[in-house]
Write a structure and sequence with these properties.
8-stranded mixed β-sheet; 8 strands; binds 5-S-methyl-1-O-phosphono-5-thio-D-ribulose; binds zinc ion; Aldolase_II/adducin_N; lyase; Aldolase_II/adducin_N_sf; amino-acid biosynthesis
Length: 214
């Protein structure tokens, strides 16, 4: 098959996956005030060259339009002529793909992820001990103890990306931005969604446990 046809099919598949996830997360109220962004990688991966489909900036993610997504390259630049602006946080997606080679990245702002990112800010990570849902990260140790890393949030988004590499923890497919939200990733959209849902569950658990112990 013609390369162009293959690329068009890959793009359409990525857009369809984004719409499915966007619909489900929107129904849970995970995109308040146009917050959040989603991306799915398209085609081959090389740390210095890759392409991904990402949500356009500032859209109401509970509404579906033909202008919801665009394709960008490893530098976050659109690869096709478009009037759409990629997410303001595209540089974070670029860096996560470059570092992990993952296939999808989902970002949401919720009250629970904001709360725990602040409560555990001084520690630099959110501890979770022995909770069953840790297995969603493919961590099967008995009474596994994990730490979900937290990085600072800056208004100048491109200054956040260089902090990710030093903060990421092996085996933990996500990172918290202080008083901002969670980024979760996976080999594909299915896995990234499972990881994000687990982070949300564990954020609520960590917050409620913190209160219960006070
Ligand atoms: C409107 S508050 C949220 C934004 O500042 C940002 O953090 C966010 O997640 C969405 O930005 P976007 O440019 O639409 O991808
Ligand atoms: Zn955000």
């Amino acid at each position: 098959m013609d390369n162009k046809v293959i690329q068009l099919e890959q793009k359409q598949r990525a857009y369809a996956q984004l719409t499915e996830v966007k619909t489900q997360f929107a129904a849970r109220g995970w995109f308040p005030g146009t917050s959040g962004n989603l991306s799915v990688r398209v085609g081959d991966f090389h740390p210095e060259q890759f392409t991904f489909a990402i949500t356009a900036s500032g859209k109401d993610k509970a509404v579906h339009t033909p202008e919801d997504y665009l394709l960008v390259d490893q530098n976050g630049k659109p690869v096709e002529a478009t009037g759409l602006k990629p997410s303001a946080e595209t540089s974070i997606h670029c860096e996560i793909y470059r570092l992990t080679g993952c296939g999808a990245i989902f970002h949401v702002h919720t009250v629970f992820n904001n709360l725990v990112s602040e409560l555990y800010w001084d520690r630099g990570s959110i501890p979770v001990d022995g909770v069953e849902l840790i297995k969603a990260f493919n961590i099967w140790d008995e009474e596994a103890q994990i730490e979900i890393p937290i990085v600072p949030n800056y208004a100048d988004v491109p200054t956040i990306a260089p902090l990710l590499e030093g903060a990421m923890k092996p085996r933990i497919p996500g990172i918290m931005l202080r008083k901002h939200g969670i980024y979760a990733w996976g080999a594909d959209a299915f896995e990234a969604k499972r990881h994000l849902e687990a982070f949300e569950f564990l954020s609520e658990y960590a917050y409620r446990l913190y209160l219960a112990r006070k």
